[in-house]
Amino acid sequence: MKNWTKSIGILRLNTKTKDRSPDLIGTVKIHYHLIHTLLNKLDESAEDVAECNIAAWQYRDKDGPLLNLQLSERYEPPQRDQGSETIFDLLQKRHDEERD
Description:
There is one protein chain. The chain is of the alpha+beta class. Strand 3 and strand 4 (64-73) form a beta hairpin. 27% of the residues lie in helices and 33% in strands. It has a four-stranded antiparallel beta sheet with strand order 2-1-4-3.
């Protein structure tokens, strides 16, 4: 398990026994790096909740259909500095470039 670096899990259809039973159930293995990152974010923010990303891919294996899950730290794309240009300035610039 030393090469394992992702927080992964699966969800499968649940056999519901009550109306309030979950539709899907499963497990997740959370990597130390993600736990450490989330704990650091909690310490830095003094919040009670840490947010992370979740992605899912639909698969089928010998036991039937499932969702393969991956947890990761929150991705925040870098902010682009557009200066004082407005959306209309950018649209005009694109229009001008297309005409050239």
